[in-house]
Design a protein that fits this description.
Blueprint lengths: L6 H10 L4 E3 L15 E6 L5 E6 L2 H4 L17 E4 L52 E4 L1 H18 L9 H12 L4 H7 L5 H13 L1 E2 L12 E2 L1 H10 L1
Antiparallel strand pairs: 1-2, 2-3, 4-5, 6-7
Helix pairs in contact: 3-4, 3-6
Length: 236
């Protein structure tokens, strides 16, 4: 996601590298129906591997790179710095959002979790590169707020698309991995959401049903996040 004012410039720079070609958008996921649509670029490596890059603007994903002061909650940071732009295993950077050992003794992993490699041996930025480009990611609360807004927009404007795997599924995954439906986790996340996002999140958490794999792992996990995710699961 890029600032609205920078989409055209950065897209031109990507094409100027000679490695990327702009291609039409193929709508596969719910977010592909958001508007304005992303600009899509394709690259084919020597071994034939094809990569795609989507450039989203702020308006499409309901997210601001530079939020206004009144959009911040409890003076908390809007973005957090990540050690790298890729990871070998999932890791939770906001340790205060961990559900705690009484709810989930093993997951999610933190950077301090022993014996689990998180960072690749070969980084995207070499040790000699100076100055290094900082990598920032949105906080969980702001990311979740954006997903809820995207899901609502799709529900109101693209009713055939809001049930497709996309923002609703991503929000459901956050609830699942962080146990956000639990009372202690609700107390953490809800105060960090603004206005409509908070109300909708409360409704989503009230409707959420957690199911578990049986001992032998025969039955897959299924989660519901309101009507959309429930129907999506039933159709899978």
């Amino acid at each position: 996601m890029i600032r609205n004012s920078q989409v055209a410039v950065i897209s031109a720079d990507i094409q100027a590298t000679g490695s990327w070609t702009e291609v039409p958008l193929v709508r596969r996921y719910g977010e592909d129906f958001l508007r304005p649509p992303p600009r899509v670029f394709e690259r084919t490596d020597l071994d034939g591997t094809i990569f795609f890059l989507k450039i989203w603007c702020e308006d499409a994903v309901f997210f601001s790179v530079d939020p206004l002061a009144d959009e911040r909650v409890h003076a908390r940071p809007f973005l957090i710095e990540a050690p790298c732009c890729e990871t070998l295993n999932p890791v939770l950077l906001e340790s205060d959002m961990h559900p705690g050992p009484e709810i989930s003794p093993y997951k999610p992993n933190l950077l301090t979790t022993p014996n689990i490699p998180f960072l690749p041996l070969i980084r995207c930025q070499t040790a000699s590169r100076q100055p290094k480009s900082k990598v920032h990611i949105p906080t969980i609360s702001r990311y979740l707020g954006a997903l809820i807004a995207q899901r609502q927009w799709l529900k109101e404007n693209e009713p055939h698309a809001w049930r497709i795997k996309g923002p609703g599924t991503d929000a459901s995954n956050l609830i699942r991995y962080l146990f956000l439906e639990m009372p202690s986790q609700r107390e953490k996340i809800l105060p960090l959401l603004n206005g409509e996002s908070r109300s909708r999140m409360e409704e989503i958490l009230d409707q959420y049903k957690r199911t578990y794999k049986n001992k032998f792992g025969v039955k897959p996990l299924q989660e519901e996040m309101g009507e959309g995710v429930a129907n999506e699961t039933a159709q899978a």
